[in-house]
Design brief:
By secondary structure, the chain is of the alpha/beta class. The chain is built from twelve helices and eight strands. The longest helix is centred in the last third of the chain and has 30 residues. It binds zinc ion. The site of zinc ion has 7 residues, from loops.
Length: 332
């Protein structure tokens, strides 16, 4: 059993040095008896509330517009979703009980990741309590993913001239197939995915860098595989913005994933991805992506650990910044 109380009491000691994007509407979607734990959004929000998170730390997203969605998705696909005119095969690929509320949820989630990117460019880091729908392609959705929130957000930041180059660090246990195809051949985006090979999606289109592991590999193979590439890819590519999909589904007790990574291993993963980005001064957007443990508190604990790693990284950065702002000592 995970010591949630311990995590929360550590969080209580200091206020959050960054903002969260969240909407109550995220968890009001009724998927019935579905493996996707929509309730995790509320549980994370409530955990933060119990820690006394302040109103000014919370941002409420607006739904993405059709023109924003069409920065990535084909107008034909957007229209099909908006009108609910999916074929039986398309609905099966989505693996969701498709409904108008699903469309509202998908649009709001994209809006949330757009807002998180805008805020990260202001503050250095922003945490979206949602997002990470990386199996959505330009012209179709798969595996619970209707619209690719990270892809739309990234394209919007690029088109508006706020960034030149961006990196997507995808640590969900499933390969980021939609994201890989959307940005294939686009030299202003670097896509990294570390995932389980013997798992959906069967076809794994090339990301800029794919690291494939196998069921049961565990911390011993996972962490060195990450350390082999970080912080080097940050330093080589020099993105203006990093999106981190901090999926909880590599966890050992996950029902869908089989990598068998421990809680401590995932916290170390977060440290490698988050602390290295922030140490290099790279603005960072964190989104949740997947997580399917039978006991939801395990999934929530992984996400809370990610928040704790981000909090520590920002507090450390802030104290460094304060030191730099001190006047230089006079000689003698
Ligand atoms: Zn996943």
């Amino acid at each position: 059993m995970v010591d949630l109380k311990g995590i929360f009491s550590r969080l209580r000691r200091t206020r959050f040095p960054f903002k969260f994007v969240y909407s109550d509407a995220y968890w009001m979607l009724d998927l019935g008896a579905h493996v996707f734990p929509i309730v995790k959004y509320r549980l994370i929000y409530e955990a933060l509330l119990s820690e006394g998170i302040r109103k000014e730390n919370l941002l409420t997203p607006q739904p993405a517009s059709e023109s924003e969605l069409e920065l990535v998705h084909t107008p034909r696909y957007v229209k099909k979703i908006m009108q609910g005119k999916l074929s039986q095969a398309e609905m099966l690929a989505l693996e969701l009980p498709f409904c108008p509320e699903c469309v509202d949820f998908a649009c709001l989630t994209v809006g949330g990741t757009i807002q998180a990117a805008e805020q990260a460019l202001e503050d250095g880091l922003c945490f979206h309590i949602g997002g990470g729908f990386h199996h959505a392609f330009r012209d179709h959705g798969e595996g619970f993913c209707i619209f690719n929130d990270v892809a739309v957000s990234l394209e919007k930041m690029k088109r508006e001239g706020r960034i030149q180059r961006a990196m997507i660090v995808d640590c969900d246990v499933h390969q980021g197939n939609g994201t890989a195809v959307i940005f294939s051949g686009k030299d202003y985006v670097y896509t990294f995915s570390i995932h389980q090979m013997d798992l959906y999606p069967a076809q794994k289109p090339h990301s800029s860098l794919d690291v494939g592991l196998w069921a049961g590999d565990g911390d011993d193979k996972y962490l060195p595989a990450l350390e082999e590439h970080f912080p080097r890819i940050y330093e080589d590519f020099q993105p203006d913005l990093v999106y981190y999909l901090a999926g909880a589904d590599p966890l050992e007790s996950d029902q869908l994933g089989g990598l068998r990574i421990s809680h401590a291993g995932l916290t170390e993963r977060d440290r490698i991805v988050i602390t290295n980005a922030r140490r290099l001064g790279l603005p960072l957007v964190i989104v949740l992506a997947g997580g399917y443990t039978p006991d939801i508190t395990d999934t929530v604990a992984v996400h809370m650990h990610t928040i704790e790693v981000a909090r520590k990284a920002e507090l450390r950065g802030a104290s460094l910044f304060r030191r730099e702002k001190q006047p230089p000592r006079r000689p003698g």
